[in-house]
Amino acid sequence: MLSRTTRHPLRTRLSALVTVLCAGAMAATAFTWVVSGDPAAIVSVELAGLVAVALISTALVRRELRPLEQAADTADAIAAGDFGRRIAEPGAAPSTEVGRLAGALNRMLEEIQAALAAREQSQDRMRQFVADASHELRTPLQSLRGYAELYQRGALPDRAAVDDAVARMLSEIHRMTRLVESLLMLARFDEQDETELEPVDLTRVVTDSCRDARTVEPARPLRTRIEPGVTVLGDEAQLRGLLANLLGNVRMHTGPDTPCRVELVRAGNDVVLRVEDDGPGVPGHAVAHVFDRFYRADKGRSRVGGGSGLGLSIVAAVAELHGGRAGLDSVPGRGTRVEVTLPAREAGPAGGPPPGPVT
């Protein structure tokens, strides 16, 4: 008896079946003719054989084609919009036409449903992104409109009031500019499947960024532990932007005298960059969302003082484009640590003098 996994094609099985039944009917007729020679008996046996061939063939063909009817019904339901339907496993081996058809259609349906789900998620993210961006831009635009209307109505009594209004307008313009630049950067990241990679001396990038941070906030205690000769494949401008956002996040959410630590070390085949502070930390419910765009742990924080909620989103996007990942660990009241892991690259000739010891 043939195994279910080695069954012949449907047309071969049906042809063999009909041939066997017809041969059996002819053999019965011939046997009756030899044994009895009675014409009535011969005709009766022949008719009975033909009826048996017809009934058995019809029953077996229906049984073989029943999975195809079920597949057709399922396809009709899917065409009507029920994308969750699947073709039931047929009672045939996967190597048969029906089995292969069911398997192929189910795989195709899984891929189609996954693609539709991904498109829907992308559309939802885009709608949310546009709504958040519009909300962020509305606030400074309302401020600009308010100051302009005050000036137009002559409600600014003296030169000092005018100067103050102009300064506030310029501040809002700068904030809108930074927001738009961040939005454009994230949009470019979304369009990039991969970035052009070249050897980058990450030791030099981190050292330069820490030096800039000390210049901006000379009073902040900043300790560094930067291994020499750490090189990665990446885009230097994007990596500098990543460091700028990490250090800017510390300035935004901690006081000017809050200690900060920056660490760059190798860990096996990876490079780990850590930026840690002793600030107020992030609430536990917010840790899972800090890399979401426009997310703020403190909903009541002023947008002027609290940023746009895009800094860590840019950090996560840059890390992903470089084949790495970003994570955050925080304890309320005890500080926050952001860790970025990137694939390491064997260092070539040093791109500059090695940094000094921990400072």
Q: Tell me the CATH architecture of the domain at 198-343.
A: 2-Layer Sandwich
Q: State the order of secondary-structure elements, H for helix, E for strand.
A: HHHHEHEEHEEHHEE
Largest sheet: 5 strands, mixed
Mean pLDDT: 78
CATH fold field value of the domain at 198-343? Heat Shock Protein 90
Helix content: 55-70%
Structural class: alpha+beta
- The strand count comes to 7
Radius of gyration: 37 Å
What's the end-to-end separation, in Å? 81 Å
Number of helices: 8
Beta-strand level of the residues, as a percent range? 5-15%
Overall morphology? elongated
Oligomeric state of shown chains: single chain
Uncertain segments: 1-6, 299-306, 347-359
* CATH superfamily caption of the domain at 198-343: Histidine kinase-like ATPase, C-terminal domain
How does this model look, in words?
This protein is an alpha+beta fold and 359 residues long. Among the domains are: 4-85; 198-343, Heat Shock Protein 90 (2-Layer Sandwich), CATH 3.30.565. The protein is 57% helix and 13% strand. It has helices at residues 10-35, 39-79, 97-152, 159-191, 202-216, 236-253, 303-306, 311-321; strands at residues 198-201, 222-226, 231-234, 260-267, 270-277, 325-331, 335-343. A five-stranded mixed β-sheet has the order 2-4-5-7-6, covered by helices on one side. It has a two-stranded antiparallel sheet with strand order 1-3. Strand 4 (260-267) and strand 5 (270-277) form a beta hairpin. It starts with 9 loop residues before the first helix and ends in a 16-residue tail after the last strand.
